[in-house]
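Re: the pair you flagged

First of the two:
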Amino acid sequence: MIRLLALSEDRSHWQQIGARIKGIAIEACPDLAQSHLDVYDGLILAGDRRFDASGINAALRAGVHVLYAAEPIWLKAEWPALEETALQNNVQLAIVNPDRYLPSRQLIRQLLPDKLGQAGLIRLHRWESNPSAPLLRDLDLAMFLAGTLPNCVFALERLVEGATGRLRQVHLGFPGGGAALIHHDNRMPAGEGYTSLSVIGSSGAAYADDHQNMQLVFRGGSPEAVRTDEGIKQHVTMVQSFIEAIQNGHHAAVNAITFKDTFLVDDAVHESLRTRHAIHLGGR
């Protein structure tokens, strides 16, 4: 039995996940200081929170594997030291993009290339109300679907005086001629955001759009549009991948592209914004 600790207040959610995966038990606790790490095999840090590096370090030094699927931007500077700590203690440090594990994204990835052919154009739209939200998740998802790193990055940004947040458009060029266009606007009013994804391959296309997952709810007055989410299967698949990494001693990513690569591409995006030129990545 593999014992996992999820740093979360939603105990019911993680218990449901544990019930769906054979051979594991998941407990949830809102505060790492209230738990005894040495009785667990792995620590799960997921959700919208930013988790402190000291907690990750403490887990790694205690010989506990760590799955990090939360706000990743701050890890750029911390990653080398955390990776070294993981290596010294012979444990897994898996930094993953939770969007990879959405059932819709998993299905589209499975269709490439056998059903859809080679990905020719990937389009991602994300509109949200978090002014500090980074592009990292969408950059990572584009590379996950393309199956490779880009060799060219070009980015544009629009700032509006007095507004918080920004509109960014990022173009990724991949070896072989494929491309991705990411449209990211984090200036929306407070409330739910919107995402859409389309992949056009050499022999077919696939789409995942929040509009398709909206249901009308009648509660009196004007009907409300309520989005149905993709259930807990996202976290089930993510945890299963983490368990396999622990058991087999390999990285939890589905393919060779990891968040270390995503950090490199994000650096290229910022360099392109600074110079207003396309950035070529190491001749890839």
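Second of the two:
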Amino acid sequence: MNPKPRWETRSLAWIHQIRTDIDQVIRAQGMTPAEWIKKRGPLDVEALCRKLGLTAAVVVKSHSKAA
């Protein structure tokens, strides 16, 4: 059998650690994950793309409202 690549294992471990850290912050504030997300406000996708260096990314602004 071919084992998982080492980079994949490390990245999954890193993602799990970040999620654990975020959960601890949320718990320390006495909030649920949904309350924490709502408190953070709307996401500025264009600013996030600039911060990550995604200069060729196109942000599509939909006029339809999510149900």
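The chain has a mean pLDDT of 82.

-B.
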